[in-house]
Amino acid sequence: MKDVLDELAAVRRTMGRGTLPAGEAYTVELRRRYDAEVDDVWDAITDPDRLRRWLKPVTGDLRPGGTYELEGGEHGEILRCEPPRLLKVSWMFGPEADAWPGTSEVEVRLTPGGDGRTEFELIHAAVVGEPMFPTYGPGAGGVGWDIALVALAEFLSGGVSADHAEFETSLEGHEFSRRSAAAWGDAHLAAGGDPEQVAAAVRATTDFYAPDPAGRA
């Protein structure tokens, strides 16, 4: 458990605002350092065979202007691809999402950090309306990305990444999700969020990712 929580602590989280074609967006931003060369990290996030081993299987026309689909429903268009520094995609979920183009984008930036390390930055911008953001805050997407980045760390270190669904439902995964939700609450507060709304959002996010089996509040 300590190793997983150390990985959680390695991430710097911020919440901000941005602009997408569909309008004003919220952003969740995660920054951390990986002990791997930039070419290795780039390959891990773009090669289909490696991507499926820490995130999900991917199919599609995997080139700029092409489309992709992850097993589980996430899909979109490859907007920019500049090896080994920048990858940007639209990020949609569910068949109905295609009716709202330009509402969600994910951008990953890689920078060589010296000593064989890589500075990793992920920015997920989304146009989020009522009631999603007031209810869950940045943790709605942030917790999921925290789980993904831990899996990437394990993969880059030569380990075998656990299945996301299995990890999320384990006792260790629940504790990780609770702490991740609290960390996103801190980022929300730092961005000027109302303390009562932030506290409620952290509770809602925690209940979503790590529900109490006894049904206690």
From TrEMBL:
<dbReference type="InterPro" id="IPR013538">
    <property type="entry name" value="ASHA1/2-like_C"/>
</dbReference>
<feature type="domain" description="Activator of Hsp90 ATPase homologue 1/2-like C-terminal">
    <location>
        <begin position="35"/>
        <end position="154"/>
    </location>
</feature>
<protein>
    <submittedName>
        <fullName>SRPBCC family protein</fullName>
    </submittedName>
</protein>
<dbReference type="Pfam" id="PF08327">
    <property type="entry name" value="AHSA1"/>
</dbReference>
<comment type="similarity">
    <text>Belongs to the AHA1 family.</text>
</comment>
<dbReference type="InterPro" id="IPR023393">
    <property type="entry name" value="START-like_dom_sf"/>
</dbReference>
